[in-house]
Design goal:
The structure holds 2 protein chains of 2 kinds. By secondary structure, chain A is an alpha+beta fold. Chain A has 4 helices and 3 strands; from the N terminus they run αβααββα. The radius of gyration of chain B is 24 Å and the shape is globular. Classes of the chains: A alpha+beta, B mainly alpha. Chains A and B meet through helix 3, strand 2 and strand 3 of A and helix 4 and helix 5 of B.
């Protein structure tokens, strides 16, 4: 496999978030819950949404508000979807780390 | 006597908050500031209670009017099903169950929350308010709507207190998020060294 010198554009957490969203539309609260449940990453609401805002600024995800009716009341929920650029960045990151899967020469 | 109780409660709450401050920020001035903030918040709560009471009274009087047999056209909502009676020339009402309707986006159907919670956010810069506070606040509202199944007086009071505390914590957290950004670091440079040292340890 050809080694790429460029570091990936995504951090480990951003990579995982894009991986969680996948090809579907996911609510922000769901992503937060999944991060907490599976990886014990307990980010506070504002910190988490700032992270998502950064992903949106970088055009890796697309976010919008959706209205949901709970007990007869309208609640706005932030929903996210991965863009083409985000999917490309995820694949690049995956490729970058997979080149080390066979082991580095320094540890041989 | 009642005023004395209010003063004691304000004093106790201020003392508890003051005890959480780091040693270098503990002073009489900071205690006075905290006591002031607590009193203003208390005033908001009092006004909200008065407003809620007057609203409840007006709703009750409306219900009494609707319950009157003189009014033929009745429409009320019950567990997502609207039961309505068309106006009849004889003045007799026939209840016709209508299938569950989509809830229209009106002011009435939006979550009625204490205004105080939304007011907290105005202290934040626009970008932080839009990007960090608002989505997190909407998640909080979702929890709040679910918690409204508890109807008793003390449960409602406790829920109001708990969600107010959570909103305050959220605003504080927004400040923390803001200070961790590049603009925040510049601002932090202007503050005293002791505060910066304390902040770095957080």
């Amino acid at each position: 496999m050809k080694k790429t010198n460029e570091l990936p554009a995504l951090t480990h957490l951003q990579f995982r978030i894009i991986d969680i969203i996948g090809a579907k539309k996911v609510r922000g609260a769901e992503i937060r819950d999944q991060l907490k449940r599976e990886h014990k990453v307990s980010k506070t609401g504002p910190a988490f949404y700032q992270l998502m805002a950064r992903l949106e600024e970088a055009k890796f995800v697309e976010g919008w508000y959706e209205q949901e009716v709970i007990d007869g009341q309208i609640i706005k929920q932030r929903c996210y979807r991965v863009t083409g650029q985000g999917e490309r960045a995820r694949r690049d990151t995956l490729q970058f780390y997979s080149q080390f899967a066979e082991g580095s020469a320094a540890y041989a | 006597m009642r005023d004395l109780w209010y003063l004691i409660i304000i004093g106790v709450i201020s003392a508890v908050i003051h005890s959480f401050l780091p040693k270098n920020l503990k002073s009489t001035a900071s205690f006075v500031v905290i006591a002031f903030i607590v009193s203003v918040s208390g005033l908001f709560f009092f006004k909200r209670r008065v407003r809620r009471r007057s609203k409840e009274l007006s709703v009750q009087s409306d219900q009494n009017v609707k319950a009157s047999p003189a009014i033929a056209n009745v429409q009320f909502r019950m567990a997502g099903v609207v039961v309505s009676g068309p106006p009849s020339p004889l003045g007799i009402t026939f209840g016709v169950p209508v299938p569950k309707n989509p809830v229209p986006d009106t002011e009435k159907n939006r979550v009625s929350v204490p205004r105080l919670w939304e007011l907290f956010s105005f202290i934040l810069p626009g970008k932080i308010q839009r990007e960090c506070f608002e989505p997190a606040y909407n998640d909080l509202l979702r929890d709040y709507v679910r918690s409204r199944k508890f109807r008793s007086k003390w449960a409602r009071r406790w829920i109001a207190f708990a969600f107010t505390a959570r909103t305050l914590y959220m605003v504080g957290d927004c400040f923390r998020v803001m200070l961790q950004g590049s603009a925040g670091k510049l601002l932090l440079g202007l503050l005293p060294e002791s505060f910066r040292n304390w902040w770095r340890r957080q």
